[in-house]
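Re: your question about Response regulator

S., sorry for the slow reply, the queue was backed up all week. Below is exactly what I fed in.
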Amino acid sequence: MTEVKERTAKSIAADGMAAHKSEFLADGLDEITAIVREIGKVHGEQRSMRPVLERVHRLSLDLKGGAGSLNLSLLGIAAHRLEDYLEAVDEPYERHLNDIEIYLDVLTELLDNGGVGGESAAHLVRRLPPRRGFDAEDMAVCEIEVLLVMDRGVVRRMIEREISECGYRVTSVSTPFHALEMIVRTQPDLVIISAVLADLSGVDLAAGLKAMPQTRNTGMALITSYAREHDSLKYLPSAVPIIRKGASFADDLTSALNDQFII
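Result:
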């Protein structure tokens, strides 16, 4: 009798989770449909773009949160990329709406397929539009994926912009633990790690990544103000180059890509 009750409880829980997932997917599709209608109304009207972008931002947060609770990793990664894209938009342009429509198409595909897809996360992120924090119609963007691991703030925004202006695709995460998941799933070409992080230092994260078979060949660099001889960097693996904040950033970034045989 106890076993029957346990099976019944598990069945009820499974049915409840299935219903929650079905409602979550349906709500996401409904919201995307409504947003697409709004985008159709504001094309060419710059003053009306901001409310649409705010609504899309709420959608990205809702989908990312729901995907996390339902273990829909591919949907969560796509929603995170959309959130990250929107954070770079200071002044909306028509090109931003065109990019957002691509994001919404991808999210619709995933939601239609139960939150999963038939491709790898590494392939998925490379067909999503790169960040465009400014009107850069003619800016050449190469297919080099950079993952920036750094706390949110003004400094991160500046570095994100510098990486974008060098022509690379950049996505940011704030914690080393989220970074680990993103690195394993999306396989970025280069991971740039801040030396100062919450919970785990950038040096420790780099050392851990270099020690693990699945990530040891991932290109990575440490961003810091210190010279390599500084005591805080003594455990940094020798294969991990340093990118210094400031005027030499672009040169150091190019050098790091060369060192890792990425360009």
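The domain at 1-119 is CATH 1.20.120.160 (Four Helix Bundle (Hemerythrin (Met), subunit A)). Strands lie at 145-149, 169-173, 190-194, 219-224, 242-244.

Happy to talk it through on Thursday.
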